[in-house]
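Hi there,

I know you've been waiting on this one. I reran it after we fixed the sequence typo, so this is the corrected version. Both the input and the resulting structure follow.
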Amino acid sequence: MQDTSREATSQYTMKKYPQSVLAFIAQWQDLENSLLSSTRHEEPLIIDSALDPSKPNYSKERPTLFRERHGWCPYSERAWLALEHCNVSYDTIRIDNTGPGVKPAYFSGQTPQMKWPEGRVQGESMDLVKEIDTRYGNGILYPSDRDEMVTELSDKFRKTFPSKSRPSSRAAFLFGWNGEPLWKSEFERVLSDTNELLKTQQQSLGGPFFCGSQMTAADIAWVPFLERYAAQLPCLHEGLNPRDATAYPHLNHWFEAMETTVPAYACRVQGNPSSWRKVLTMAGYGNAGVPPSVVERMEDFDLDDRRAQTEEERILDQQLWDSYISTRPYLALTPSAEAGRVLLNNRNAIVKDTLKRAGSLEGMDIPLDEKGLDDTIRALATILIYGCAENGHYNELETASKEAMNVRGVLDMAGFLDQRMCVPRDMGCVSAAAIKRLAALRSTSMYH
């Protein structure tokens, strides 16, 4: 049941105010007040141990997930998705386990790990998925009539993906030990084998997932890696697209089911293609350098990510979001408003990060003083929370949105945040998409 305090209608994200309050002179407190239904509820604890290395006071009621800090680690994603899908209330400690990253003194080993309420610590991603289902899922991830099938299909992941690739949390199963991408034929084998496996399962069980009509632990075992492949493989080799419905129809059907019928995945745990492509350019992720052709293809694909959302897509996203927030009353009522809420909660850190990177902002009309930056970020949060006047769903807030759109640098700030964001570390992909669409408006003359 959805929390009745959040019902009102899902197309509005805020308490109604008199028109005189709606102008952009509204301050951060007004934006906080506009999200009353979410601010009344305590949010689960999330600690970035790189910024706060002090030992936490662990909850004796909720489990604690230790996951990789940036959201890059596919094995951490498995445990994270299991917790989210089973609607578990849990705390999170983000660990920097990349190369030179410094781990807090109280943590040892690799991610993911869980610290259970009774104090026991456990690792290994699929062992954690199993334990989460046993404790909280009531068999939703390992149905009693298909337990052996789920385990068998989970194990087939290892037999299908490349065995001679260099280990990397940022670019798993992509590069060989010489730093070069694996052969195109090897990737095609993986995709073909996966497609055939799904074909057999879909035809015999009648559902889009590995084990039938509902997502199970088998899908959790595969999805972090296939999700990254979908974004990264087209950059590595010409004509290599895991989402090609002609070449891999059953795999494409599975992708669509994950993204349109699993709210916890679509709304929070799924990364976005541009984030997965960005990690290919980062030093130290497991290859010797980025081939120029990879960078060129990345730029081409980024253009498609910024296209305007159709009304059908907006409605589907909102339906998924409504389902997701029904057990998470601390979140905003729309994906876009959630992006605004994240900006509101992190505004001071965003100001510091922007000023730190002032030298890279050439060509952007972003103010480089704290007051000007605060106004710009506040304007962007206003647009995300209140909505764009052009979409027709926030007419009573049109004044605030129009005035916010005219604030200096607001769309450039959307572009800067789009470049800086790591999804799903900072927010879910449906919320991040709202910022990306605003960033795309910089290339139009509508608001200039």
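Quick highlight: Confidence is low (pLDDT under 50) at residues 1-25, 283-288, 389-396.

Best,
R. S.
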